[in-house]
Amino acid sequence: MAKISRLAGLAADVALGLPVRAVPYEIRKDVPVPMTDDVTLLADHYRPVGQQTPLPVVLIRVPYGRAGAFGQAFAAPLARRGFAVFMQATRGTFGSGGQFRPFTTERDDGLATIAWLRRQPWCDGRIAMVGASYFGHTQWAVAPYADPPLVCVSPHITSANVTNRLFYEHGVPSIHTALSWSAQIGRQERPGLLAGLPDPRVKARVRRGLGRLPLQAVDVQVADAPVPFWRDFVAHAEPADDFWSQADHDGADLTRMPPANMVTGWWDLFLAGNLSDYTALRAAGVPARLVVGPWLHGELGELRTVVQSDVAWLEHHLRGGPAPEGAPVRVHLQQAGTWLEFENWPPPAARETVVHLSGGGRLGAEPGGDPSRFTYDPARPTPTVGGPLLQPPGKQADNRLVEERDDVLVFTGPALESDLDVVGPVGATIHVRTDIPYADVFVRLCDVDEKGVSRNVVDGIRRLDPRTLNAPDVEAGADGVLAVHVELFPTAYRFRAGHRLRVQVSGGAFPRYARNMGTAEPFGVATAGRPCRFEVFHDADRPSSITLTTLDG
């Protein structure tokens, strides 16, 4: 047992915005936990020094290692507040047995760990879980199923559904995220002092790998060895493949969920799923709280809010402390420098505002004009600029170079007479006809300032495939025209007076998303593509539009 002094955590407390006080704790390392298939997982047990009576346990299950930065950021701050913490390495990582096949074993392993914890004399039977990103997913994998239920959970910057919300966003493989993460987990346990730190050489390998065809084996080029997750990702992307159903938990009985605390960011790639989860939990009667800040995935501000909110959440649910103050929903209104509070999400007082695409590249109250046309060529795919990415750069970026391309339609509205606050879901309906059946429809909403700089705000994509045209979000009309409903990311964003709304319509956003090759070949093995000609209709009978959720000033 290693004794940790009070001074050891002061720097971390300051960085995380926690009170500079600490309870001495000790760590029992490499605690073995047997799984149902005789595999053993290892964990570190943090416990206040001198504590003799059983305590509730805060369980954290993580694939990135129990020590180092993740232990210091998530387990140690709670231990310094006097909580007993059990931080476990998931299967196949950092000493735990078995093979790491992400998202496929977390339910069984998590439930086995919870059952084992409840049998230990130092656990009083009450268990909470916390964590962000993948170790937010490990909470979703067990929280709806644990019996007795967990006391509370904090599934931050994650989603109950990882298939349609992350891996294959509305049918389109998110290859930048998947390959970047494959590079990380494929190299994270290699020896060396800098093994766990970001390496610009690896990022360069990822960029080169994303541009190669076929994609099936580019994991070897970025990680110097096959990465099981990448192989699963490219092998199970077809619409009828149910391999990833084991990773999705949004269909579980949510009335069994314990109280949930959630933090995410407007530029976090998990945002849409996180907000959908919150809405579903509240509809199921589950007490839940939500904070959404102006953050990209894993930014320091996001991390600080995660830890601070977890301390207050655990104090309330495990120790009977005061309930967190303020309304259940707290969101940052971007470009306004302020925070808004609501009783629910989406905001009950919000209303829908429909803006129509029309001829001549106009955006306004009425549709009209002849169809707009462009050709998408997978040999020169439309590039991605900014947006919610796993790693920087992301967020907002100047879109003018992309908007000058001949494969991007641009529709711009008049200068706003007053500020416009868009707070809530954003969606688009695009009436489109393509000359081949395989295509993607990418829609992006931008903010154009007085100098003409166009910055992305939210976007969304939908894959067209003959196998999925019966879905509710695609309606077939006359002459092969489809009404495609595209879900954009939600937001809270102020368009300033004098600025203009702009909508882009294109056939992709590469390499954030896999290029559509225009054929039935699976994306992992495709090497040859076909250009696709698009016609976008915006007349009175086929009114393409974008729908904003707005708040009155």
Question: Could you explain the architecture of this structure?
Answer:
The strands form five sheets. Strands 14, 15, 16, 18, 21, 22, 24 and 25 form an eight-stranded antiparallel beta sheet that branches. The protein has 553 residues and is α+β, with helices and mostly antiparallel strands. A hairpin with a 5-residue loop joins strand 19 (439-448) and strand 20. The protein is globular and about 80 Å long. It has twelve helices and 25 strands. It has helices at 10-16, 68-80, 106-118, 134-140, 163-167, 175-187, 200-210, 218-223, 228-235, 271-283, 300-319, 400-403; strands at 2-4, 25-34, 40-48, 55-62, 84-89, 123-132, 153-156, 168-169, 172-173, 260-267, 288-296, 329-333, 338-342, 351-358, 362-364, 372-376, 408-412, 420-434, 439-448, 454-464, 474-476, 482-495, 500-506, 532-537, 545-551. Mean pLDDT is 94; it is low at 1-6. The N and C termini lie far apart (58 Å). Helix 2 (68-80) runs parallel beside helix 11 and helix 6 crosses helix 7 (200-210).
Number of strands: 25
> How many helices?
12
Strand content: 25-35%
Helical proportion?
Answer: 10-25%
Judging from the principal axes of the Cα atoms, what is the shape? globular
Structural class of the helix and strand makeup?
alpha+beta
Q: End-to-end distance, in Å?
A: 58 Å
Give the rounded overall mean pLDDT: 94
Radius of gyration: 24 Å
Largest sheet: 8 strands, antiparallel
Instruction: Classify the oligomer.
Output: single chain
Poorly predicted ranges (pLDDT <50, ≥5 residues)? Answer: 1-6
